[in-house]
Prior knowledge:
Layout: H1 3-8, H2 11-19, H3 25-32, H4 40-60, H5 72-79, H6 86-106, H7 116-123, H8 129-138, H9 151-176, E1 190-192, E2 195-201, E3 210-215, E4 221-226, H10 227-260, H11 262-288, E5 294-296, E6 301-306, E7 319-323, E8 329-333, H12 340-355, E9 367-369, E10 373-377, H13 388-404, E11 409-413, H14 422-438, E12 442-447, H15 450-458, E13 462-470, E14 475-482, H16 490-496, H17 501-509, H18 513-598, H19 603-627, E15 634-636, E16 646-649, E17 654-662, E18 665-670, E19 673-678, E20 682-685, H20 700-710, E21 714-716, H21 722-738, E22 743-747, H22 754-764, E23 769-774, E24 784-789
Parallel strand pairs: 5-9, 8-12, 8-13, 10-11, 11-12, 21-22
Antiparallel strand pairs: 1-2, 2-4, 3-4, 6-7, 13-14, 15-20, 16-17, 16-20, 17-18, 18-19, 22-24, 23-24
Amino acid sequence: MNQRSLRILEYDKIINMLADRAVSAKGKEMCTQLAPQTNYDKIRQSLEETSQALDFRMKAGALPLGGIRDITPSLKRTDMGGVLNIEEIYHIGEFIYVCRKVAAYAKSVEKREYLPIVDEAFDRIAPVGALEAEITRCIANEREVADDASAALSTIRRGIKVAGGRINEALNAIIQSAAYRTMLQDTVVTMRGGRFCVPIKQEYRTNFPGMVHDTSGSGATVFMEPMSVVELNNKIKVLEAEEKEEIQRILVKLSDSVAQYSAVLGDNFAALTFLDFIFAKAELALAQKAIAPEFNDYGIINIKKGRHPLLDAEKVVPTDIYLGDDFTTLLITGPNTGGKTVALKTLGLLTMMGAAGLFIPAAAGSRLAVFDNVFADIGDEQSVEQSLSTFSGHMTNIVEILQEMTLDSLVLFDELGAGTDPTEGAALAISIIRYLLERGIRCAVTTHYSELKIFALSTEGVENAAVEFDIQTLRPTYRLLIGVPGKSNAFAIAGRLGLPEGIIAAAKDMLTSENIRFEDVITDLEISKKQVEIEEERAAEYRREAERVKGELEKQAGRLERNRDKVMDEARREARSLVAKAKEEADNIIKDMQRLYQEGIDFKQAEENRRKLAQRLTEHNDSLSTKIETKAKLRPVDKPLTAGDGVFINSLGQRATVIDTKGNEVRVNMGLMEMKVKIADLSLEEGGGDVKRKIETPKATSVKSQKSLSISPRLDLRGQMVEEALEKLNKYLDDAYLAAMGKVEIIHGKGTGALRAAVTSHLRGHPHVKSHRLGEFGEGDSGITIAEIK
């Protein structure tokens, strides 16, 4: 990436924010080295790292890396046979403890989806429990070896403690003795040259039995070691030397143990450093309420509700910025301090952040493109009077950009052509823009020149845009309005700032009526153009809606046909069952009659059995006639239908009861099912048209209780075709309504947005849905829809 552009767009400040969220020094170093990528696959990989780390962070909390240190230099020294000091070994023990904490952290979330990047890094952390236990036993703190590090060290230190106790007893006896009271300068015991001494007055130095080790600055006091403790002091010196040798032996042993685990510890350190780096990216995304952008390699940018990450998050107004699809050049106009440069920097900085694998502060569904470079000429050194040298400086940068850019570059120009004669500057700016346009290079430009507005209006591939500015408060809102050219509003701004009205009036008199109307005409033309585009889009939407309704009707007709066939098949199965049962009973009665005949029983009993058989057959025939109706018993609807009327549905071959009517449609009740049918598909039963039936309704309490036990509050439609998903959604909403569920979650994923749009459209007109909305930050964003059931 162009280093000057990185500096101008303040990418380094984003990197500093990222590094502040890393814990280890090595992790911070990785953050500072993070640069935008130019390879599509590498960008996707880096974004996936951030996404998986954020997913785990949301479930398990912050990564516990407190206490981690860079142990690489210590490991290198042990590999070369060197001996580590107490502090280095203590830090290695702390590092192993951090490894153990992170390993436990990795297992803290149960029943979660597998995250390959994060989980593989966690799996690299190998346990080193034996070494940790040995270091903990031997090293008390950063400066001291524990007494229990070895039996010899424990014995030596006990000896030092005993000798020290005897010395204190002897010295206390001296300073409390009446014989030495006059000789003592003070009744204290002090250390001089590592020896226990007492302060003796200069004039008594020859009278006090002992050795002189030091003299006070004034010479009035000498510090003498009493002869009674010289031998004990010598013994302590010997023991301290032995202690030092024993400590060195322990350190050598521990260093050898560290060397044995050097490769494992090095791999653990690399894994923790990588985790520190990707979790820092996750923490930054969380702090900025950022999302993962969708990348493409065909130059389309569509930033939705983008926020400049360096502005106050509570005050900045989100804005939409897009180019590369219908047009490749975006021309931003408007007054000074109106936010043009902020819009330009937001476009460039978010592109760089996304290419570096960082999430961007924008709305879900935002898209970024892969560029091989981002070039920016943004003149932050603007002054009241722009000299020729300023123009020359900008032009030098522009020449370098034109020489280095490729067809896959993003170019940003701030105040292109400014700093020279307006006529020449405008002509030069148009020529540069046309040069980029002809090559299809993505470009965004800010300007004040009206000539460029006309150029954008009349040139295909170039689009006008304006930054919104509040004249009353003289404050920019930083909203970008694409499709509308901006106005300078110079007179209004000057008046609000206190410029006398007389001066402003004189300035207005210098403008011709054509000049005054010029920008208004441009604006009117652009607005008219946008209105035409809006109407065209609305017409296209109506066509799409008509096609959708047509498709739904065709599906409904197909479902009705399938239901009719299903009902008829069921009736036939029941009829066959009844006939088979009747035949079986008839066979049994005939067998009984034959048995009675053979036994010589009179025919009265046989006649009685024959009569019973005829009665059974009649009953079965009556049962069959209620299952399968014949046309001979029906007549067309010849009177207005009202609630409760009994009707027959011709297409389904079933009785039903009228609930209500509307036009040529009737809503009927058929068992536990309600449906709408055309009046033309209904018939009245002969002699039964005036019969009122009770409208059957399902037992709500029992149905709801059964449904509520089985239905999940979440429906996952990801990976399904739109038609299949909507069919499942429809049944799910019916079940949710019967279960009296207040709120349900419908997971459709982000993807291309087609399934999300279909679900939203379906919910909008569904009779069981009270309201619906997309998920918020932390709920699943635009990959999930929350619906409230009536």
